[in-house]
Write a structure and sequence with these properties.
Low-confidence stretches: 1-65, 178-183, 334-338
Order of helices and strands: EEEEHHEEEHEEEEEEEEEEEEEHH
Strand content: 35-45%
Largest sheet: 10 strands, mixed
Shape: globular
Structural class: mainly beta
Mean pLDDT: 77
Number of strands: 20
Helix content: under 10%
Number of helices: 5
Length: 338
């Protein structure tokens, strides 16, 4: 498995070919991509016919050699989308609305991937011109101390700067490109070869989900939260290309977050199987549920936190499969011709 480090500079935004996505307050794009080997053993081909070999880069010790938890490879590639809101004491804070993951193709091409409804949801009259982003390396500061960087989603003419799946699947992406603005932090990205293959998806398979579920309260939303579960159901007519269900207690805020296949337990054939690397099965789309009013007593906060949000029913979540992410990323070369 390889990772791609997106060198995310102190002033953060995004840029795309033949046109810069200018963010407000002077924030501009700054993402530098460097391929590094993160784990022993690497896939040699791209999944679902991606057809792009990962560029070779500087090799660094595997997580095992550096005592780095394997999950950090995925957690450091995961980030939160949000907006600036005010709490009951009128203090500004970064309110999480969704999750995203960075995926790299080679040393020059990376993408921010999330659920489409994070960017556009006509049923809720939601079509923001920009959102805030808190990267993995910003976890040392609270959601009150760091309000995130501005990510511009539409240009001055109102046109979307992100691209959604052509078939209507709940997935969208924005390409990222390097610009030098000085001073760096590291936002890691998983490699496109980490996308799961059809045989990786089977009912009963163990999964880990990363995301920022708002129900836990602001104190815990500085770092991606881990939930574990299993693949609960897949579509018998087209299991690799249609949404599937997981049993992993998904909540609002998890939308767009990675669902990772963990090579533990029994294989699809019922055997223990050979050691394998984790892979990206897909991203969270939604959790079936009902709107409810919730009151939370947060330690250190005088007034209770009152939320009106969707509460999942039965702990299941709907996931857009990796094949849809692969198809979307493959579409970019043609879409980026001007």
């Amino acid at each position: 498995m390889k990772s791609i480090e997106l060198r995310t500079h102190a002033v953060v935004g995004l840029a795309r070919a033949q046109g810069t996505l200018r963010a407000k307050s002077g924030l501009v794009a700054a993402l530098f991509l460097t391929l590094v080997a993160q784990m022993a053993g690497q896939r040699n081909t791209s999944p679902q016919g991606m057809g792009a070999q990962a560029a070779q880069g500087a090799v660094v010790p595997s997580p095992a050699a550096t005592n780095q938890p394997w999950l950090d490879y995925w957690r450091l590639s995961t980030f939160s989308f949000g907006k600036v809101s005010k709490d009951q004491e009128q203090r500004e804070f970064f309110e999480v609305i969704g999750t995203g993951i960075t995926i790299g193709i080679d040393s020059h091409t990376g993408y921010i991937v999330t659920a489409k409804h994070v960017f556009y949801d006509p049923l809720k009259n939601w079509h923001p011109s920009d959102l805030r982003v808190r990267w993995a390396w910003q976890e040392q500061k609270s959601v009150y101390e760091d309000l995130g960087a501005i990510l511009t989603l539409r240009d001055s003419d109102g046109r979307d700067l992100w691209v959604a799946a052509a078939d209507g699947s709940d997935v969208a992406a924005i390409p990222t490109e390097p610009q030098d603005v000085g001073g760096s932090h590291t936002q890691q990205a998983v490699n496109v070869t980490d996308l799961a293959r059809p045989e990786d998806l089977y009912e009963g398979g163990t999964v880990v989900v990363l995301g920022y579920p708002g129900i836990v309260g602001n104190d815990y939303l500085v770092r991606a939260i881990v939930r574990a579960g299993i693949v609960a159901w897949r579509d018998p007519s087209d299991p690799a290309d249609k949404p599937f269900l997981i049993d992993a207690n998904i909540y609002p805020g998890n939308s767009g977050g990675p669902v990772i296949k963990v090579p533990l337990g029994l294989s699809v054939s019922g055997s223990a199987g050979l050691p394998a690397l984790p892979s990206l099965l897909g991203i969270v789309s939604q959790a079936p549920g009902q709107m409810q009013d919730i009151t939370l007593n947060v330690p250190g906060v005088m007034l209770p936190l009152r939320l009106h949000q969707m509460i999942p029913v039965g702990g299941t979540g709907i996931v857009v499969p990796a094949s849809k992410i692969s198809a979307l990323l493959r579409s970019f070369p043609a879409k980026r011709k001007d």
